Amino acid sequence: MFHSYTDALNWIHSRLRFGIKPGLTRMEMMMDKLNHPETKVKTIHIGGTNGKGSTVTYLRNILEQAGLTVGTFTSPYIELFNERISVNGSPIKDEEILLLANKLYPIVEEMDQMDIGGPTEFEIITAMSFYYFAYINKVDIVIYEVGLGGRFDSTNIISPLLSIITSIGLDHTAILGETYREIAMEKAGIIKHNSPIIAAVKQVEAVEEIAKKANEENAPLYLLYKDFTIDNEKLNSKGEAFTVKDAYHRFEELQISMFGKHQVENASLAVKAALLLKDNFPPITEINIRNGLEQATWPGRFEIISENPLVILDGAHNIEGVEALTSVLTNRYPDRNKSIIFAALSDKKTDKMIGLLDKVANDITFVTFDYPRASNSFTLYEESKHINKAHTSDWKRAITDKYESQHNKESMLIITGSLYFVSEVKKFWKDLKKNHR
């Protein structure tokens, strides 16, 4: 048993060595030993390649505006491990993590001796969240973000009120498949019997897979740009303004503070979800939707961490993420000189990502960071064709030097790549800002 939060956290992280183990048998066994907490909470399930975290926060804020207490389960964390399990945006307390770890420890020890094998880190955290929301901090509803894929993800033991698939991209192909169709089939695994599914998926073959699964499960399917649409999109100083409409509703001049067309689409998914949830909760009003969207923020997603000089932090960790980032940079800051610092994981296909960054950067620096799967900075450097490129293993020095060299309103610094890298940068940035006051 554990006597401190640190001991509990070290034990949880030690389970990383168990890697990824497809299948839900271990989760089902833990749930049985915990008296099935997953059946005692109302849930929403959100999967997809990109946009899951942003969609979670849009929907959470809308539901909070309607007076609900909303739990969230997200990954990875940006600053604190505890962020992964939160209530109304407030992370779980250290002492609650300790309590949950001690609750799970004997179950995990017992399972370690079985042929099925012990649970992974992610399975343990997921089980902790179910127990927490069912028995320790009861909430009105919990929004569960899929960790990886969908069909065999640890979260996929719930029977949600509705599910959302944000997008399909060619990420984690070694695990989920090499094509959009194969990946869509895995993501569509979260679709449950008679439970509505909302999607912003665009590829024809991916839509076909989702529609096929929805039909098999008798799940009502609502596709963006078919069953509900976006129009009147406008860039403004606050972020993005747009209209969402379906057969029965029209919400004009909705406002979000996050930048980019992809964020407009994520927000529209949250709007449609809120409309479908009206029958389950006290009326969710138009003002709840408006205020919820406008107040929603999500760290590490085109986050402005300094206004003067302008510094952007963005977790563009796959090709779709980089496409979204470069689109915003091109549309919002066409005349700025752009310095980019980029880090990635070695299991990512980075050549196309770097090619897109090369096109918008005035200069680009490739770095590595302390993480088991972090890519070597020189490997990334060699993939770039930029005439003004550099690489270093000292990412903190690279950020400090570039930050200090931004002297005018015509320049900006963009720090991007792996979400694990973004998490490290967030911690470092606080110290850097203190030293430059």
Task: Explain the layout of strands and helices.
Elements: H1 5-14, H2 25-33, E1 43-47, H3 52-65, E2 70-73, E3 85-87, E4 90-91, H4 94-112, H5 121-136, E5 141-145, E6 162-165, H6 173-176, H7 180-187, E7 197-199, H8 204-216, E8 221-223, E9 228-236, E10 239-246, E11 250-256, H9 261-276, H10 286-295, E12 303-306, E13 310-314, H11 319-332, E14 337-343, H12 351-360, E15 363-367, H13 377-383, E16 389-392, H14 395-405, E17 411-417, H15 419-435
Parallel strand pairs: 1-5, 1-6, 2-5, 6-7, 7-8, 13-17, 14-15, 14-17, 15-16
Antiparallel strand pairs: 2-3, 3-4, 9-10, 10-11, 12-13
Notes on the structure:
With 437 residues, this protein is an alpha/beta fold. It has 2 domains: 5-225, UDP-N-acetylmuramoyl-L-alanine:D-glutamate ligase (3-Layer(aba) Sandwich), CATH 3.40.1190; 303-435, Mur ligase, C-terminal domain (Protein-Tyrosine Phosphatase, Chain A). The protein is 41% helix and 19% strand. The chain contains 15 helices and 17 strands. It has helices at 5-14, 25-33, 52-65, 94-112, 121-136, 173-176, 180-187, 204-216, 261-276, 286-295, 319-332, 351-360, 377-383, 395-405, 419-435; strands at residues 43-47, 70-73, 85-87, 90-91, 141-145, 162-165, 197-199, 221-223, 228-236, 239-246, 250-256, 303-306, 310-314, 337-343, 363-367, 389-392, 411-417. Helix 3 (52-65) crosses helix 10 and helix 4 packs across helix 5 (121-136). The chain is globular, with a radius of gyration of 22 Å. The mean pLDDT is 94.
